[in-house]
Design brief:
Layout (H helix, E strand, L loop, with lengths): L27 E7 L7 H11 L7 E6 L2 E6 L2 H9 L3 E3 L2 E8 L29 H6 L1
Antiparallel strand pairs: 1-3, 1-5, 2-3, 4-5
Length: about 140
């Protein structure tokens, strides 16, 4: 049991009886943010993104914060495949994804950047350095 009675300005520290077993579940998670201000209808989003990802079953999606979604998977392999095969788009908006443990604060997830590989043809040897590439 957790006993908490903080004031509104204090942070609550919650202690769970049972330790790690109390927070263990059999699901795997990603969190994501759409780079769009458009409203999202969760049933449509779930059906469409599940189809885009080539899933046999619809992915369960929860909107946890205003612009952050949590995607719940039954199999780690499926979650990892989705995460590694991006970038993904929904309704003409990029969907940033990050691995999520289901416990950490969502605002700590790296949902503000996307790493991509870019091939620049014809780049001269002298320009193949970090400083020159940041200018391109």
């Amino acid at each position: 049991m957790a006993a908490v009675s903080p004031s509104l300005s204090e942070e609550a520290v919650v202690s769970l009886v049972g330790g790690e077993e109390a927070v263990h579940d059999s699901f795997f998670y990603l969190c994501g943010r759409l780079l769009s201000k458009k409203a999202v209808v969760l049933p449509s989003f779930s059906a469409t993104i599940s189809n885009i990802w080539g899933l046999k079953e619809r992915v369960l999606i929860r909107q946890e914060e205003e612009d952050i979604f949590v995607f719940q998977f039954k199999e780690m392999e499926v979650k990892n495949r989705v995460l590694s095969r991006g970038p993904w788009f929904y309704n003409n908006s990029m969907l940033l994804l990050a691995d999520y443990d289901g416990i950490s604060a969502l605002n700590t997830a790296p949902l503000h950047l996307l790493e991509v590989w870019v091939a620049v043809k014809g780049l001269r040897i002298a320009m193949r350095n970090e400083k020159a590439l940041t200018l391109i």
